[in-house]
Design a protein that fits this description.
By secondary structure, this protein is mostly beta strands. The chain has one domain. The chain has one helix and eight strands. The chain has a five-stranded antiparallel sheet with strand order 6-5-4-7-8, with helices on one face.
């Protein structure tokens, strides 16, 4: 998927709840049937740190954290394999965009 243009579709995001109020940075929402804010797809520069992995529906994803903004992202394993050799001490810097596979959303590096 590296080198492809970003998709022309919207991406679901959610905000963290603090004291019953939406606050903090927006996070990629892998389950858009929940209350979500939909934004046009875009590219962003960030250094992301690997924090773990998750499973849901039919997809397994790697969990990444932008330490500058606190935003959390998930990446499909297929896209993660594309960047594996570029990770240094659990972090990777680059330009990122969002992608959709089936009913799931994630990020991928723009190369």
């Amino acid at each position: 998927m590296a080198g492809k243009n970003k998709g022309n579709y919207q991406i679901p995001f959610s905000q963290t709840m603090r004291n019953g109020v939406l606050s903090g940075p927006y996070h990629l929402d892998s389950y858009p049937e929940r209350h979500s804010v939909w934004k046009d797809n875009y590219e962003f520069k960030a250094t992301l740190v690997l924090t773990g992995y998750s499973r849901g529906r039919s997809a397994a994803r790697m969990c990444l954290l932008d330490q500058d903004t606190g935003s959390e992202y998930e990446m499909f394993l297929t896209d993660f394999c594309d960047i594996l050799e570029d990770i240094v001490h659990g972090a990777i810097t680059g330009t990122w965009t969002f992608c959709k596979r089936g009913m799931n959303y994630g990020i991928r590096m723009v190369k």
